[in-house]
Amino acid sequence: MAGPWTLGLLCGLLAAALAEATLSSPAVLSLGPEVIKEQLTQKLEDHNATTILQQLPLLSAVQHRSNRKIPLLRNLVNTVMKSIIWLKVTSASILQMQIQSLPYHQEMMVKIPLNMVAGLNTPLVRTIVEFHMESEAQALVRVERSNSTSRRLVLSECFCSSSNLRIRLLHRLSFVVNALAEKIRNLLVPALPELVQTELCPVIKAAFDDMYTSLLQLMTVPIPLNPGGLVFDPMFLIIEEDTVRFYLEARVLNSKGQVTTWFQSSEMTLTVPKLGNTSSSFVIRQDLVNAVIATLLPSENFVILLDYAHPDVARKLKLSLQKISKQVADRLDNTQIVKMVTRNVPYLHLIPGSSTVAQQIVMDIFATDKKPHPLFTLGIETKSEVQFYNEGDRVMINFKDISSDRIRLMNSDIGVFNTNLLKDAITMILTAELLPNQNSKLRAGICMPIVKALGCETASWSSAQEILILTPDSDF
Ligand SMILES: *[C@@H]1O[C@H](CO)[C@@H](O)[C@H](O)[C@H]1NC(C)=O
Ligand SMILES: *[C@@H]1O[C@H](CO)[C@@H](O)[C@H](O)[C@H]1NC(C)=O
Ligand SMILES: *[C@@H]1O[C@H](CO)[C@@H](O)[C@H](O)[C@H]1NC(C)=O
């Protein structure tokens, strides 16, 4: 029967699980098994894991084993041992590792198959006696709670089970040598898993910790924005079947490095799509994307000498005004000025396929540069398509086309008129001035080192319902 202590523990665990289910973060990095396998394989290579296998001290391990035999047998075995000149691994390779999800919460198993050939040199036979040895290192990966808020991914246990051990002679030998080889094989069967555990497991652990540290570095490296910056920090992480998900918080900084917006866990949920057939993904919530856009495109004033800068647009404005009043149109001279201010920062609405950005603009039209008051003032709601694409590890954002959806007359020196008559001229002004200006500020793109954490060189951005998703280009 479960005692009160067990019940308390269960309730605690349940509460923690529920808290996580409702926790939400502005960004989530999901790494599937293929990425973890590839990155761990790379780190094992960096840590010279195969060299470690090639240097396994087989002879001393076998000798050590033979000393443990009961005295009667020891003499026999000693005779065998004396006839060995050397016994060592002559070739070793690490085969394709496997990641297996475990039924327990927050755990998964990494299986690393090992393939080796050991050579035995003895005066009893001219050629080297060779053994083919297959084994498997297994490591348990889990989420460790270091304190109430901080979690880390750890490789908690590493062992070499004898169940996947196979040692066999590569060649047929004479009867006498065969008997010797068989004795050595019998000593290798218990010795090899022990050796793998003591020699290779520390290297696997070091490689894993190295991989985890590199991942954290890629996630937390500050991303420069112009102006300001963006910093991600892991909030918590979970293992979900064979996928590791890092939930990140984000800070948007201004040019002085001060935090302007801090996105922590919030009520706003972030729906992380299943990985499906992609190996990894990075998902950013719409409100964070908008905070970044607000940093890149702060509210701004434009003063345009329309006839000098864009004579064709000035002509169009005059023609449109003529439809309202010939006298008013005639008051425009070639020093006419358009003043524009972006009222609020642009607001991106992310949807699958084509996302849009909405902006509010206040526009004053001055007939000449001498007039202190505008002819009229318009409030304009615009809409553009937003395009996301990638260049290397940069996300590029571009506003395409601009339409003036609603035009309100806010102030007028020339009486009330139908603002729709100016729609085409206004769209031309916005297309000539606002769009190129904003696109030039977006042109540098945003460097995302996290692309490398996805296990790829290049990745593609796409928008889904209220999220921006980065997925690797080359899929497994
Ligand atoms: C792996 O081997 C290379 C060359 O022998 C050496 O420079 C490097 O330090 C080794 N790496 C580790 C982690 O021991
Ligand atoms: C939790 O641990 C991390 C590092 O292990 C430390 O930076 C952080 O301050 C700790 N938080 C609390 C609440 O103790
Ligand atoms: C999986 O990939 C194929 C092509 O590689 C694509 O056609 C399909 O839509 C993808 N499925 C999902 C669920 O993403």
Automatic annotation (TrEMBL):
Keywords noted in UniProt: Signal
Domain called Lipid-binding serum glycoprotein N-terminal: residue spans: 36-261
GO process annotations (BP): innate immune response in mucosa; negative regulation of toll-like receptor 4 signaling pathway
Signal peptide coordinates: 1-21
Gene Ontology terms for molecular function: lipid binding
Coiled coil region boundaries: none
SMART domains in the record: BPI1
InterPro entries, per database record: Bactericidal_perm-incr_a/b_dom, Bpifb1, Lipid-bd_serum_glycop_C, Lipid-bd_serum_glycop_N
Superkingdom field: Eukaryota
The keyword Signal belongs to this UniProt entry's keyword annotation: yes
SUPFAM superfamilies reported in the protein's UniProt record: Bactericidal permeability-increasing protein, BPI
One cellular component term from this protein's GO annotations in UniProt: extracellular exosome
PANTHER family, per the entry: BPI FOLD-CONTAINING FAMILY B MEMBER 1
Name by which UniProt lists this protein: BPI fold containing family B member 1
Species, as recorded: Cavia porcellus
